[in-house]
């Protein structure tokens, strides 16, 4: 999904400086405290990361949906919001928590560092364009960092020929790009690089035929027929009763939910959705964090 986050200025910071500059609200700290208790009850520390994913994702069920949750600062900082989620920030938060080496108050800084690692190219904040706006670019970066593996081809995917250009073509929708032509040119360069790569997807009418190859907790990127966009939504695969469902932050349901229907049937009712790309955890549990 393209990330429609609007930020008004740029700040060149290292990950450590960003961590220091990040303010976590009292409400978000309370959610983290509740999560530490949840993690202890679920014995997350003893689980492998791929088993942690669906357990952590379930913690957020019922949390309110809100778009543009990162549009709260004039600086490009790693905003933390666990109270309200969109489909992108749900995935980011779950992965950042899954990669922690401990689950207590001492893990807060590592959680922020993980968010930076997952949200930004090379785990570094330079400007608006260092954020991974296109999901295929995000998965490519996660693969490069050996955090996720794109298993779409191995799962039965076919070539996905869909050039991206949405941000550069509709740059007036992004005040940062409309204001700074240098950043607009950087976005165009990023789009050119994305379009040089080969991606694969599984058409939605084929999902049921390969559902046995989808693993519990896989990241599901949903492709779209919107011109210039690679994907329009994402979430986590959730296995229930031998079928694959989607756990996601729903804009229509206005909260984090599990789909009532299995993934293919759910997508068949949405004309803009064309198929899926799959990302899978590849790292063992680290000693501290992914940073």
Helix content: 25-40%
DSSP summary, beta strand count? 8
Spatial gap, N to C terminus: 24 Å
Order of H and E elements: HHHHHHEEHHHEHEEEEHE
Structural class comes to: alpha+beta
Mean pLDDT: 89
* Biggest sheet overview: 8 strands, antiparallel
What count of helical segments does DSSP give? Answer: 11
Q: Provide the β-strand percentage band.
A: 15-25%
Rounded radius of gyration (Å): 18 Å
Task: Tell the overall outline.
Answer: globular
As residue ranges, the low-confidence spans are 1-17
Describe the protein.
This protein is of the alpha+beta class. Helix content is 36%, strand content 16%. The chain has eleven helices and eight strands. Strands 1, 2, 3, 4, 5, 6, 7 and 8 form an eight-stranded antiparallel sheet that branches. The longest helix has 17 residues. The protein starts with 14 loop residues before the first helix and ends in a 10-residue tail after the last strand. 43% of the residues are buried. The N terminus is likely disordered.
Short structural summary:
Helices cover 36% and strands 16% of the residues.
Outline the secondary-structure elements.
Elements: H1 15-21, H2 26-42, H3 49-59, H4 87-98, H5 108-119, H6 135-144, E1 148-150, E2 158-160, H7 166-169, H8 175-179, H9 181-196, E3 199-203, H10 207-210, E4 219-224, E5 231-240, E6 243-250, E7 255-258, H11 263-268, E8 273-281
Antiparallel strand pairs: 1-8, 2-3, 3-8, 4-5, 4-8, 5-6, 6-7
Helix pairs in contact: 1-5, 3-4, 4-5
């Amino acid at each position: 999904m393209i990330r429609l986050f609007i930020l008004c200025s740029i700040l060149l910071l290292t990950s450590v400086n960003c961590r220091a500059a990040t303010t976590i609200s009292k409400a978000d700290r309370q959610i983290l405290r509740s999560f530490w208790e949840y993690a202890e009850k679920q014995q997350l520390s003893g689980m492998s990361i791929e088993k942690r994913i669906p357990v952590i994702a379930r913690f957020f069920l019922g949390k309110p949906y809100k778009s543009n949750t990162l549009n709260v600062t004039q600086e490009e900082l790693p905003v933390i919001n666990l109270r309200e989620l969109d489909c992108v920030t749900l995935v980011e938060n779950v992965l950042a928590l899954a990669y922690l080496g401990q689950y207590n108050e001492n893990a807060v800084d590592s959680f922020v560092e993980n968010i930076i690692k997952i949200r930004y190219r090379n785990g570094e904040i330079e400007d608006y364009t260092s954020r991974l706006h296109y999901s295929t670019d995000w998965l490519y970066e996660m693969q490069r960092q050996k955090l996720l593996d794109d298993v779409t081809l191995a799962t039965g995917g076919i070539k996905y020929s869909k050039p991206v250009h949405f941000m550069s073509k509709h740059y007036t929708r992004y005040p940062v790009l409309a204001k700074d032509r240098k950043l607009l040119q950087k976005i165009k360069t990023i789009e050119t690089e994305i379009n040089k790569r080969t991606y694969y997807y599984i058409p939605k009418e084929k999902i049921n035929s390969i559902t046995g190859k989808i693993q519990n907790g896989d990241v599901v990127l949903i492709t779209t027929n919107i011109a210039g966009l690679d994907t329009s939504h994402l979430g986590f695969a959730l296995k229930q009763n031998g079928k694959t469902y989607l756990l996601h932050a729903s804009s229509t349901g206005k909260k984090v939910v599990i789909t009532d229907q299995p993934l293919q049937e759910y997508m068949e009712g949405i004309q803009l959705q064309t198929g899926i790309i799959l990302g899978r955890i590849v790292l063992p549990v680290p000693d501290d964090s992914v940073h």
